[in-house]
Design brief:
The protein has helices spanning 11-14, 56-59, 122-125, 132-142, 158-170, 183-189, 207-215, 229-237, 262-268, 282-294, 324-333; strands spanning 26-27, 43-46, 85-86, 92-93, 113-116, 150-154, 174-179, 195-198, 221-224, 245-248, 271-274, 296-299, 304-307, 315-320, 338-342. Helix 5 (158-170) links the parallel strand 6 and strand 7. Residues 1-23 have low confidence and may be disordered. The protein contains 11 helices and 15 strands. The strands form 5 sheets. It has a 6-stranded parallel beta sheet with strand order 8-7-6-9-10-11, with helices on both faces. Strands 1-2-5 form a 3-stranded antiparallel beta sheet, covered by helices on one side. The chain is globular and about 60 Å long. It has 2 domains: 3-129 and 312-342, Alpha-Beta Complex (Quinone Oxidoreductase, Chain A, domain 1), CATH 3.90.180; 132-279, Rossmann fold, CATH 3.40.50. The protein is α/β, with parallel strands linked by helices and 345 residues long.
């Protein structure tokens, strides 16, 4: 593993990752024909992943991948393959991931909207539009992390830290963070990270060798949260034989391939799976996560009450819409976890 394994993608590629700073909590201004799930004035969270509630996949607990409106990178409204936006000259403007939230008003298909309690602060609810929900869901829904288990997380950006938070909520007793920035360990402790492996300073050993030695045979759950094919392979090698799971949350550049020895696949008995939006079904799982945020748990040794699901700790910056370029700078420089953009402040 090298420094480049954890390096940020270029600015061009980062535009596909802008959920890190999107203001994704909205109030319904009006509804179209046939829409009965929400009414004017409702508070909603838009999500890039649809949940039509009608197809076989949406009705099954086994999948969150809608077959009626399958996810794809497209400039259109998914149901109609058209755009709802035009500029002052009447020329078409295109949608972004079915949400298009870098605008004061947007048009979103009902399959991409989840109604929430309006009492929840919007600068916290928006975190579950993507990012934090993806990481927490990957541990909770995709992996099914069990109490007492050992977890290894490759990449301690906001997604990896959200995985740690999800693993903590599931009762994992050992959460190993892997990154090339040692400062991430202190940040990770807030979210349950118990051990740290510096991917740039493991001597002659690979990270997988270090983790296998630390855990006496490998972590039960490994999460790749960077988007590097080489790290998928390293995470898989760090996973315990027999019942270990490797969950992939990141995506590498187009054309990248993951190579695994076929002998190893057969004889190790490990599982490798992708996790889009953390395996969450937006309309049913986001309300559950929001309830876990509003629920408080006691920390008796400190005499305080904490949120069961930590969201406050992810928000490191809040800016006005006019400062959107500052938000991108913070993201590219790696100086924020989540930056909330306010449209009206």
């Amino acid at each position: 593993m090298t420094q480049n394994d954890f390096a940020d993608f270029s600015v061009d590629y980062i535009h596909s990752l802008t959920e890190a700073i999107e203001p994704n909590c909205r109030v319904v201004e009006s509804v179209g024909e046939g829409v009965n799930e929400v009414v004017e004035g409702d508070t909603v969270i838009p999500t890039f992943l649809p949940d039509c509630g009608e197809c076989l996949d949406c009705q099954s607990r086994k999948s969150n991948l809608c077959s009626k409106l399958p996810f794809k990178v497209s400039p259109w409204m998914a149901r109609y393959e058209t755009t709802r936006f035009t500029d002052l000259n009447g020329d078409p403007l295109y949608h972004f991931l079915f949400v298009s939230s870098f605008s004061e008003f947007t048009v979103v298909d009902i399959a991409h909207l989840t109604k929430i309690d309006s009492a929840i602060p919007p600068n916290r609810a928006c975190l579950l539009s993507c990012g934090v929900s993806t990481g927490v869901g990957a541990a909770w829904r995709s992996a099914g992390v069990e109490a007492g288990s050992t977890v290894a997380i490759f990449g301690l950006g906001s997604i990896g830290l959200a995985v740690a938070e999800g693993a903590r909520l599931c009762g994992a007793t050992r959460i190993i963070g892997v990154d090339v920035n040692p400062d991430k360990f202190e940040i990770g402790k807030k979210f349950g990270v118990t051990d740290f492996v510096n991917g740039a300073d493991s001597g002659e050993k690979s990270v997988s060798q270090v983790i296998n030695e630390m855990t006496d045979g490998g972590a039960e759950y490994c999460f790749e949260c960077v988007g590097r094919a080489s790290l998928v392979q390293e995470a898989y090698a760090s996973c315990r034989k027999g019942w270990g799971k490797t969950i992939v949350l990141g995506v590498d550049k187009p054309g990248s391939q993951v190579t695994l020895p076929s002998h190893d696949i057969l004889h190790s008995g490990k599982s490798l799976l992708g996790s889009l939006f953390g395996g969450l079904k937006p309309k049913s799982d986001i309300p559950i996560l929001l309830k876990r945020y509003t629920d408080k748990v006691s920390v008796w040794e400190h005499g305080i009450m904490l949120h069961e699901l930590q969201l406050d700790e992810f928000v490191t910056h809040e800016v006005k819409f006019e400062e959107i370029n500052k938000a991108f700078d913070l993201l590219i420089e790696g100086n924020c976890l989540r930056c909330v953009i306010w449209m009206d402040k």
